[in-house]
Amino acid sequence: MKLKQKTSLIVTLFMVMMVNGQDFQGVATYKSHRQMDFKNNDSTINSELQKELQEQLKRQFQQEYTLTFNKNESLYKKNEKLEAPMPSRGGITITFSEGPDMMYKNIKESRFTNQIEKYGKQFLIKDSLPSPKWELLNETKNIGVYTCFKAQIRTEFKTQTLTETNGIETVMKEKITTAWYTPQIPIGNGPAEFFGLPGLILEINDGKLTLVCTKIVINPEEVITIDEPKKGKEVTQMEFDDIIEKKTKEMMKQSGTRSKNGTTVIFQSGG
């Protein structure tokens, strides 16, 4: 056996022993990058302005997150930072919404709590964790000092678009999510809503969103506490989806009406 393989095996066995310990815990830092679709109905917006707006938005979507975890639980939240004003050029005002403010997962009890603010209201989504059907692939790569394996999952999602006649069309699309996980940290967890692999997920990509782990601390000196979020109107995932769908239709209709007398800019940042 080569020295590199021996070292990897020793590290993996050591990590397994640590995980089996009662007090195993860790903190992983992730950075996000998001692809955006720039759409507008105003031919007076030249390509240079579009490019400038695209670059400024790209920087806005580069965020940093922390995943605090133990054997059974995790808490994923965005790190606070001073936000720069969103670009405003030629009377164009751009707004966008982020993902979960704070997401708690309990793998052992197969449930999650997602604290999120939408349209000025705080929601507390409580529901069961789904059972992801990952396909394990025979590909590897290194992320830092960790050997990672590739996995994929295919899902369908519903999206709504504004038609040329200002109508709303609902279509189903397929999304392929690719994960890179490391058995060297044999915790079946990961950033955001992702979990269910035989190792901590260090990188995830769903076609538009990419999350990459940049730092991991195993068993830090200061004891970690994982507190489940408690603020917001309690709803199920289905109830929350219905609320967002109705609000999206309402906003798209308003946007279609306004577009007759002004500029409409739409950014799609989701799946």
From TrEMBL:
InterPro entries: GLPGLI (IPR005901). It comes from the Bacteria. Pfam families: Porph_ging (PF09697). This is GLPGLI family protein.
